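Lecture 7 notes: from sequence to structure.
We start with the chain below.
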Amino acid sequence: MSVTISAPHSSQMIVTLENNAMVSDIKKALRLIKGIASVRMARITDDNQITPALYAKIKKARQEYANGETISCSSPEEMQQYFDSL
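Predicted structure tokens for the same chain:
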């Protein structure tokens, strides 16, 4: 069973920086902007390979979704209600 969580009115923006020395300054500047919920750093690697084990997990998750075996929550409150019901 899979759980999908989505925040209905949230948007994400991906910013790619050429110079890692700028990361700290950019993060500080973003935190000053009203409406920014969080600032996180993701490292992108050149290893874009999907291993056979990962592919099997993706295939299984897609099949579970197609069979209606997933739970989808559209808000944190809905997710909490689901967890409380367990």
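Points to note: The longest strand covers residues 2-5. The beta strands are 2-5, 70-73.
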